[in-house]
Request: fold
Amino acid sequence: MTTDSSDSLSQTGTPDDGGYVTLSSRVAYENPWTRLREDIIRRPNGKDGLYGVVERGDFVVIMPVGGTKDAPTVTLIQQFRYPVQRRMWEFPMGMWESRPGTDPDIVAAGELREETGLTAATMQHIGVTYQGAGYTTQLGHVYLATGLTQGERALEETEQDITCHTLPLAEFERMVRENEITCMVTLAAFAMIRERGLI
Reply:
């Protein structure tokens, strides 16, 4: 597998405190995947307030593109998302909670293989996106996977309901237009890849 990480992997924007002061901070809840932090803050206008921050590790999202130049395909997964009580169309994505700090290129190749059975000759790192900067620290790495070879999936115990579907790119685009795909991360990844003229 060849990876192309020539683009900066750094987060965009300049870190600063925005004029906010953290007066105190405590962990309100924690499990192996998520930590909820409650901060008492002072806003730039001098008023005190409270901020709940969901801390989660970095994740990856992969757009697998196969087929031919004249008839490209996209591989999606569909899985049940408990918080919203519905099955969602999504690109393969995930994080390795048990191996924090693992190179995103390795995580992306692993998640693609686990959820779809695909391996990619090329995994191109496209950029990064925050999943919801208003409430969580989680940062996502976006990849385009090409040169695909089909193998066996290796779903984790919590992923047994995942189904895998390879569709014409035109059908995927129709699903986006008609709001059948509502996963924000999938839509953002597609937009980033499309705007670079890569598909």
